[in-house]
Amino acid sequence: MQVQMQKWGNSLAVRVPKSIAEDAKFALGEKLEINVDASGVVRLQRSVTTPTLAQLVAQINPENHYAEVGWGPETAREAVEW
Prior knowledge:
By secondary structure, the chain is of the alpha+beta class.
């Protein structure tokens, strides 16, 4: 399928046809990464932006690990019995 390069602000843009977007299962607003190899081949792929639980836990340090906050005594059915 042939598409045409367009100007978009100071950048260039290519519209992804609906059939291609559906085949690639792209969603509106999805973040993508674009790469070019030495021969000029352009590759478009999904960004891996959702961190795993292990990555989040690895970021815990003394500066961002706060003490528990008390909100006073329970007043209704707030107690959780394990």
